[in-house]
Amino acid sequence: MLVIDPQSATPPYEQIRTQVLAEVRSGELAAGSRMPTVRKLAEDLGLAVNTVAKAYRELERDGVIETRGRNGTFVSASGDPTEQQAQLAASAYAERIAQLGVDAGEALSLVRRALGIHR
């Protein structure tokens, strides 16, 4: 359930966007789940329709949701776009490391250092 904090410095559309993304990542909103209409969500949250529409546009741009014309808006079947992008980056890194002839242990050490994980 989405909740808007009117006292937050974060704009309402961004609160919607981040909460929907968090629910998709956690599995609370499963792939294929139908989203409320823009008008219905705006009414439920006490927001302007344009505010919710902006959040939906950004979520759709990022591949989190998809609009299927008159059928409505749904959580994208492709899953968490952040995870997809991370997987693509990891695959590109692994491919490049192999090209350079760096062994897996050293490659993991390089990643740990880049992420600031010291062990």
From TrEMBL:
Keywords for the protein's UniProt record, in alphabetical order: DNA-binding, Transcription, Transcription regulation
Gene Ontology molecular function: DNA binding; DNA-binding transcription factor activity
Domain named HTH gntR-type: residues: 10-78
Superkingdom to which the source organism belongs: Bacteria
Keyword hit for DNA-binding: yes
SUPFAM superfamilies the UniProt entry points to: Winged helix' DNA-binding domain
Protein's UniProt name: GntR family transcriptional regulator
